[in-house]
């Protein structure tokens, strides 16, 4: 009986993790505006042409471009204390 209970709890945990991971992937779909802003910023600042803005490339961004990304919902959220 204990083995069955442990197996059911384990299955429930796996199912919950799988559903949570699937929801996370759905949230990453970008709007047309976000895609346009992302393409523009990559064109301007992606110096190593890897398709991502790394820490050094983000540091070189102008204040206006950082705000543009934030307004489009692409910027990293600041932690609130």
Radius of gyration: 20 Å
> What is the residue-averaged pLDDT?
83
Low-confidence stretches: none
Q: What is the N-to-C order of secondary-structure elements (H for helix, E for strand)?
A: HHHH
Quaternary organisation of the protein chains? single chain
Q: Structural class of the secondary structure composition?
A: mainly alpha
The helical percent reads 55-70%
Beta-strand content estimate:
under 5%
Looking at the structure, what is the overall shape? elongated
Ends distance:
47 Å
Largest sheet: none
Q: What is the helix tally?
A: 4
How many strands?
A: 0
Care to describe what's here?
The protein has 81 residues and is an all-alpha fold. It has a domain at 32-72. The chain is 67% helix and 0% strand. The protein has helices at 2-26, 32-45, 55-59, 63-72. Helix 2 runs antiparallel to helix 4 (63-72). The longest helix has 25 residues, at 2-26. The chain is elongated and about 65 Å long. The model has no long low-confidence stretch (mean pLDDT 83).
Essential attributes:
81 residues, mainly alpha, elongated
Please provide a brief summary of the model.
With 81 residues, the chain is mostly helical.
Task: Describe the secondary structure blueprint for this structure.
Blueprint: H1 2-26, H2 32-45, H3 55-59, H4 63-72
Helix pairs in contact: 2-4
